Fold each of these.
Amino acid sequence: MIKENDKFVSEEQLKKYAELAVRMGVNVQKNQLVVIHSDIECVTFARLIQTAAYDAGASNVVMDWTDEQSTKEFYLHAADEAIDHFPDWENARFKEWDDVGAAHIHIISEKPDFFKEVSPERISRFQKAYRTKLKAHYAKTRSYEIRWCLLVVPNVVWAMKVFPHLKKEEALQALWQFILQGARADGKNPIKDWENHDSAFESRKKFLNNSQFKALHFTNSRGTNLFVGMPKIISISVEVLKIKWGYHSFRTFPRKKYFPLLINIK
């Protein structure tokens, strides 16, 4: 079954996008636990990732479902004590996942302005509550002890914001194409495309480090004329995680993955 958000891209292409998350995003290892965090509206795509994870050797794939509408109702109507409280059982499951080395795949498909009726103060309070309770989990995330990646899936509301001049169906199809192209998931073999893309980074990194540019100058046909000054001594970094995991992994799709301003000042 292809749901509305997915019907403008072939099931074959969705499977390739799903496999990209599993094989390159978190590089699932044999007998590893995988947790998929997804809104229920992305159920079709989430299930494709689940299948790809089992094919890659995952011991179990846990589906952690959310519902944007239910979340909105919570923010609007929950008691203040509920807004300020993040239950211990939620923290316990994250700790258990972290202790066994679970890989986390997050599917993002947020609707612009969906929470405009909600008080930002209530959202902030709940975010503070769960980030405080999950402090250890987020610390491990930042230090790369946890394997994770993000994938983007479009929705109609978002598509119409980006392409207001198009019809609903055309806008959704156009946004899908931009996302797949940005993720390098639009070709015949996305995994090979990412491997080829990655192989060029060492030479690019070496070129930038050896050049020690004083500034970068960005221009385009639309009038962009931007100078970005650079530190005197820099070391360009690329976001390929082989530090603690022992193998390559790319955390976010879509992204170009290489940013000249990801720098470490020596």
Amino acid sequence: MRSDVHGNDDLSSTLKLMKDDLTNITQEHFSCTQCTPPLQQESLQFYEYDTDVSMGSLTQQDYETQSKDIRKGGTNASLDTSLMLQSDDSQLDVPPTKDTNLPTCLLCVCLSGSVYCEEIDIEAVPPLPKETAYLYARFNKIKRIAASDFADITTLRRIDFSGNRIEEIEDGAFSKLLLLEELSLAENRLVKLPVLPPKLTTFNANQNRIKSRGIKANAFKKLTNLAYLYLGHNALESVPLNLPESLRILHLQYNNITTITDDTFCKSNNTRYIRTRMDEIRMEGNPIVLAKHVNAFSCLRMLPVGTYY
């Protein structure tokens, strides 16, 4: 019986000691709330989302790195600007302005050597990829074509500037375009023609303000491939001189042409001469009466369209 009592006393003493030890361990654990290593304490700050702590040291270092990269890329963006753009998502929704220097193939559409820059309100010829063969820049606000616009683009075969506001074309703007076959400057504000490239087959300058003095005497003489020439709705007083033998279609309607000579289309010293390639001449809307100049059409296979009485 006594042995049982002693046994119970020993078990109670042991349990009490274990309880005391556990209490001491717990107190020591909770009394060391500041024992977390410094690196862990700092790292905890960057996971407290929706607080100002997110702009902590690591984030700051990231922005500084990005700012250095921006400066290396050739811009003058400051760190504050970089921070503002990244911290305020609403800035990303602002549409680009007309003065934004976007790459041409973001501003326009580039497809297999063709560049489409139509109806985007550009005011100058954009920089083109060097392999560009076809440029369509219709219905914009381009006022001037500079000699440097195509200085390095020798692969161009077709250019269309219809429906712009072009008033001036620098000398030599098209001189290096030795492959250019089609050029349209229709619906602009030109008063004179530029020097045209030698392999041109189609030239359209309808609906400008061109007068006869704005076309040099030999402007078309050396264009031995020119087949389609459109100069309607201008202010010409006479038919351009030295038209090439290659010409098939000639539009001169609605100008101010009042006179024509026997050498305009034919050769007065050669009665057997025939213009075999000329298929169409339009001269309606001019003040000239064509019936008074019968000999001027003797070499043509068909009479021009226009007023005869």
